[in-house]
Design the sequence.
């Protein structure tokens, strides 16, 4: 099999694009902070005398984050079309601008034919122009959310606590799952205190869920505090609360000679095999 390589000789220039068309559409120009908007971008070749390639993406910014969720290409001869779809979350309220990077790569049929005529021992280059296309930014007017809001979207919270009675330094296991649609980033909901120690993995974050696994141990009786997450659904404009109630944990004393560390490092909590915790609560 012949493997062909292209080496691009790049020439940068900045011109007003007259040989392509592009359009932007968003489903909401006045979203709430951290409310997802969908951006559709269509780029089409108008000058059919040339060979073109496109490179396009929103610019990175501290004002928003974005994820490409779809891409389609129609690469008919001299009639290139690209369709992009992005999910964008504004991270601040007020007026923000979503800016874009776009490069139009232009070459000829002869140059393409020459470039692909080589083999792995005779690499040939594709001579082309990389032309920066200046695109107007997309303006958003972002509405604020309440300062105590923890979640923006439509979420449900579930949990399982394996027991409420244990022995000194023998941990109880708490499995928590947050699932739904909306803005998600990693955060913790359980922390160590003077009354107990929390052993934790990093939360497992996907596009629609966060999973926490905790092992909590203590020498004496303790109370796991209530977990309260304040949510806001921008679709319904309704606030809601997700709650894990407080739990009293009864801790029975054991012979201190069986403990590796008499403070907070029990024999039964050493080298916790976290792999079985998910199975336990499945």
Sequence:
């Amino acid at each position: 099999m012949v493997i062909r390589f292209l080496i691009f000789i790049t020439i940068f220039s900045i011109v007003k694009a007259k040989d392509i068309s592009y359009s932007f559409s968003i489903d909401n120009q006045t979203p709430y902070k951290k409310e997802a908007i969908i951006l559709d971008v269509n780029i089409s070749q108008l000058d059919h005398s040339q060979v073109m390639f496109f490179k396009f993406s929103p610019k990175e910014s501290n004002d928003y984050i974005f994820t490409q969720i779809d891409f389609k290409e129609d690469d008919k001869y001299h009639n290139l079309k690209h369709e992009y779809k992005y999910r964008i979350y504004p991270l601040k309220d007020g007026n923000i601008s979503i800016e874009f990077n776009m490069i139009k790569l232009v070459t000829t049929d002869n140059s393409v034919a020459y470039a692909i005529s080589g083999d792995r021992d005779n690499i040939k280059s594709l001579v082309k122009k990389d032309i920066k296309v200046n695109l107007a930014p997309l303006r958003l007017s972002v509405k604020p959310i309440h300062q105590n809001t923890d979640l923006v979207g439509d979420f449900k919270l579930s949990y399982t606590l394996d027991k409420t009675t244990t022995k000194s330094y023998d941990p109880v296991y708490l499995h928590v799952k947050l699932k739904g649609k909306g803005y998600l980033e990693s955060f913790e909901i359980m922390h160590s205190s003077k009354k107990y120690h929390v052993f934790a993995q990093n939360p497992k974050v996907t596009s629609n869920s966060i999973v926490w696994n905790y092992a909590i141990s203590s020498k004496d009786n303790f109370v796991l505090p209530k977990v309260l997450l304040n949510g806001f659904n921008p679709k319904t404009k309704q606030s809601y609360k997700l709650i894990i109630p407080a739990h009293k944990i009864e801790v029975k004393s054991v012979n201190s000679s069986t403990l590796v560390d008499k403070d907070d490092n029990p024999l039964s909590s050493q080298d916790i095999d976290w792999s079985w915790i998910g199975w336990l609560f499945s």
